[in-house]
Amino acid sequence: MRAVVYFRRMSIALHWFRNDLRLADNAALSETARADRAAFVFVVEENEGFRPRGGASRWWLHHSLEALSREIAAKGNRLILLRGDSETLIPALAARIGACQVTFNRRTGGVEREADARITAKLEAAGIKVLARNGALLHDPARHATGSGTPFRVFTPFWRAFTAGPAPEAASPPPATLPPDAAVQEISLGTEDIAPLPRNPDWAAGLRATWQPGEAGAAHRLEAFIEHGLHLYAGNRERPDLPATSMLSPHLAFGEISPRQIWHRAMIAREAGANTGDVEKFLAEIGWREFSHHLLFHFPDLARRNFQPKFDAFPWQRNEALLTAWQKGETGYPLVDAGMRQLWRTGTMHNRVRMVVASFLVKHLRIDWREGENWFWDTLCDADPASNPASWQWVAGSGADAAPYFRVFNPISQGEKFDPDGTYIRENIPELAALPAGAIHRPWEAPPLLLAGAGVKLGETYPRPVVSHEAAREKALAAFAALSG
């Protein structure tokens, strides 16, 4: 009697990286790692309706992809880089390698989800299985709703319900190895082809000095914060002059680390003796990111339209000179200017200062919050499609759970309170470095001899205030009060 031999079809999988540029705790990647052969691809998507990345984000992407390529190569495969319309490229690549399965982690943006649905339909019509997982958030926003089944619009009840629910699943380790390469070499572009570095001029020196993009850089940043910054967090996180924040936001934005990894590492620190108040305050900031993506999932126009429609009638000013002064850090208000210069130099800004500079733009200058959101999108390494517009709308008063219209941050008193010695200002505005703490937050009030001794010439080496705080505040209150009836 002859033996019956069964032949199993070789499984070939394609993993599509998007905002999950890591190997550890990557749910969709774990599915691909079990295949016989696999291909790994990242696409700079030029689909119609997709928002192009800003300059700082492209710089980060270049280095993050190089780091990911090295990690994949060390585990026996390689990363394919493409650019163009993903609705064409992904099905074509899957067909070319003979994939029986395509995996990716879900996104929350509306146009991205619509494109993913069309790509999924094309793949399934071709007999290719699609596995989409949640790799960017602690919980799926589609399953998190109020008791009446509607989306949350206020952070506090959102976070109360979130923390009362099941704990996030444990983070998974990276695969020990990856399947052999299923693709052909010549189909990949180079990193410089899809995310070119700035050359003429090279404005990225401050970014290079500040950041280490990639999964290893994210892990190092988390451990450094747990060891040296977590114990300062609740009491000092509002101080831009102190190293009390995690600096993890760009790593999260690119998915070089998952929120589950951060969550469970913070919990381990608490079990090892870290102060509960510090841990809870830190995790609440992760919660704000979750809330922002919850809003984007349910309200896809978050970056383009006022969450509260009554703000459509607000009389924003069009003033290019004032907008440029704000962008360049030349408003004459030291804390505002320090924040904007830190942003340009390093691709980041302390969160307290972000609130102050945003409030200054929309309330002192009465310039549309979307102008500020666009500038941050271009200059922030952590430019996030959910957190960026949600936070801008919060400050403007037009968003969900928004700050009340009468909250106008005083850039002078905010500096005196949160940068009392002027350390942050001196670091970012060297022309004011010789001023004492008592004068550095309001140099226009300093005696002429003191200014001269510090080498400060108002209107020459440092600008005078572009608006009067008191007058601008009154005009803003009147405009917002009229809108609110």
Summarize the helices and strands and which ones pair or pack.
Blueprint: E1 12-17, H1 27-32, E2 37-45, H2 55-74, E3 79-84, H3 86-97, E4 101-105, H4 110-125, E5 129-133, H5 155-164, H6 191-194, H7 205-210, H8 215-228, H9 233-236, H10 249-253, H11 259-271, H12 276-298, H13 320-328, H14 334-346, H15 351-364, H16 369-379, H17 387-396, H18 411-418, H19 423-428, H20 437-440, H21 448-453, H22 469-484
Parallel strand pairs: 1-2, 1-4, 2-3, 4-5
Helix pairs in contact: 3-4, 5-12, 11-12, 12-17, 14-15, 15-17, 16-17
> Which CATH architecture of the largest domain?
Orthogonal Bundle
Largest sheet: 5 strands, parallel
Summing up helix and strand content along with how strands pair, one would put the structural category as alpha/beta
Q: If you consult CATH, what is the topology of the largest domain?
A: DNA Cyclobutane Dipyrimidine Photolyase, subunit A, domain 3
CATH superfamily of the largest domain: DNA Cyclobutane Dipyrimidine Photolyase, subunit A, domain 3
Number of helices: 22
Would you tell me the overall average pLDDT? Answer: 94
What is the tally of beta strands? 5
Note the beta-strand portion.
5-15%
Q: What value does the Rg take, in angstroms? A: 25 Å
Helix and strand sequence:
EHEHEHEHEHHHHHHHHHHHHHHHHHH
Helix amount: 40-55%
Poorly predicted regions are 3-8
Distance between the ends: 92 Å
Query: How do the strands of the widest beta sheet line up side by side?
Result: 3-2-1-4-5
CATH level 1 class label of the largest domain: Mainly Alpha
Number of domains: 3
